[in-house]
Amino acid sequence: MAKLGDGLLILWTAPQTLRNGDVYHEFRPGSDFAYLTGFPEPEAALAVQRRRGELQTWLFVLPRDPEREIWDGKRFGTQGAKRRFGVDAAYPIQELWKQLATLLPGEQRVFHALGRDPERDAQLLRACHRTALSARRSNPAAHPAFEDPTPVLADLRAIKDAAEIDALTRAAEISVAGHVAAMRAARPGAVEYEVQAELEREFRRGGSPRNGYPSIVASGPNACILHYHENDRKMRGGDLLLLDAGAEFGGYTADITRTYPVSGAFTPPQAAVYRAVLKAQKAAIRAAKPGASCEAPHRASQRALTRALINLGVLRGKPQALLREAAFRPWFMHGTSHWLGRDVHDVGAYRQAGKPVKLAAGMVLTVEPGLYFDVRDTRVPKELRGIGVRIEDDVLVTRSGPRVLTEAAPKELRDVERACAY
Predict the structure, then answer these.
(1) 3-state class of 329 per DSSP?
(2) Annotated catalytic, 194?
(3) 257 strand-pairing partners
(4) Which of 112, 343, 390, 417 is catalytic?
(5) What per-residue confidence (pLDDT) applies to 93?
(6) Which of 45, 84, 145, 168 has a 20 to 30 A CA-CA distance from 230?
(7) Is 136 among the residues known to form the active site?
(8) Is 412 one of the annotated active-site residues of the chain?
């Protein structure tokens, strides 16, 4: 609120949504709401008012209900919310608009992201309208100024504190264990979802309540589909398996990709592509230093992969000219990095005032170059067709340089083959 200034912040958690019939999707609190409150239940709201530098905080939550708690589990209720989560007061969610009617009069600014939930926007505007009507003799504005708090929240979330780094580190450890289990499980004749089951079993064993995102378990030609999700192909001898998955812990997620041979050993063409991507990834990680552009890892990947494509016989010409032309794009079509935190593609700007954001200590980003040669791509040598390789790690920027949170997941070619041996 010191960054936002005086005003009233109103923030809701994510709503529950129906999956089908009367079955709901698994509930996960909205990331901004969880960041500010830690409150885990649905149908909740936070209000924070800052006037002349003084703060007051309120949570609005589902009240205790013994009958519903038989079905849905114990609730904190208003007393538990106040005692456990450090707010000045807590009320039943049904009283939100009644209480806001006491907070809105005289308020000059309301911090609320319009457009995300039209129904709540309309309720808030109606509340402002009622407030204006009650003071109509003084001819007030119809509503306070609305400001979106998202940019300020994103800037705060971009720099992780010690507790957040601890959660990300644990998420990384659990994810590494899952990837190692998956390497042991992958073999010719197994189905992709069988490997997924071993991976996610290890996630749960490690204390992760859920995945950070749907697991991508892509064997053979499926590795060239960036967000492949069917996970139902039977693996064959000679296949590579590209597995992109991360566990969530404490509300924070890891994001790891490893690519490995289901038969236990890379073929020479597979090994050549793998070494090229690994070399590019190492160069990109080295570029993730405080004060460097957030685009520096991507530029390092582009340089390394352009040279690799020449060596693989895919491109011809001078590296600098090919780099200027982005000649690598048909085979390396995505970015190298994204922010990581409560969301797998975490909040935070990449460019401000037209310039790339500078990396700073406490930021966490992925580093994930790749090369993808579609099985039908006649532009590449025949022996490369159908090979897709991506290698991804989670990197914490520190004052002394990059720290790889996921370094325990095997990625040196020899270590990968050893982990896959059966």
Answers:
(1) coil
(2) no
(3) 244, 392
(4) 390
(5) 97
(6) 168
(7) no
(8) no
- Burial code (b: 16+ CB inside 10 Å, e: under 16) for 392-407 equals bbbbbbeeeebbbbbe
Structure tokens at 267: 């073929």
The beta strand positions in 128-184, using DSSP E, are 145-147
372 is catalytic: yes
Give the position of tokens 């708090």: 149
Dihedral through CA 354, CA 358, CA 364, CA 365, nearest 10?
Answer: 50
Contact 369, 378 (CB under 8 A): no
Return the pLDDT at 276. 98
SS3 content of the chain, % helix, strand, coil (to 5): 35, 20, 40
Q: Is 390 a catalytic residue?
A: yes
Which pTM value belongs to this model?
Answer: 0.95
- Report how far residue 276's alpha carbon sits from residue 188's, in angstroms, rounded to the nearest whole number: 25
pLDDT of residue 145: 94
pLDDT score at 7: 97
- Is 38 in contact with 11 (CB distance < 8 Å)? no
417 carries an active-site annotation: no
Q: How many angstroms separate the CA atoms of 368 and 220, rounded?
A: 19
Q: Is 244 a catalytic residue?
A: yes
d(CA 276, CA 321): 20
Reported residue count of the chain is: 422
Tokens of 111: 């911090």
List of residues 6+ apart from 380 with CB closer than 8 A: 312, 313, 314, 331, 373
The rounded distance, in Å, linking the Cα atoms of 32 and 267 is 46
**Active-site position among 334, 351, 379, 418:** 334
Cα→Cα distances 221→186, 241, 287, 309, Å: 16, 9, 31, 19
pLDDT for the residue 135: 82
CA atoms in the 13 A half-sphere facing the CB of 21: 1
Question: CB-hemisphere CA count at 13 Å for 280?
Answer: 31
**Consecutive sets of 10 residues in the chain, 422 residues long: mean pLDDT of each?**
96 92 94 97 97 95 96 96 97 96 93 93 93 83 92 97 98 98 97 98 98 98 97 98 98 98 97 98 98 98 98 98 98 98 97 96 98 97 98 98 98 97 84
Residue 377 DSSP class? -
Q: Are 304 and 336 in contact (CB under 8 A)?
A: no
Residues sharing a CB contact under 8 Å with residue 417, sequence separation 6 or more, in sequence order = 260, 261, 264, 265, 266
Tokens of 286: 């080295």
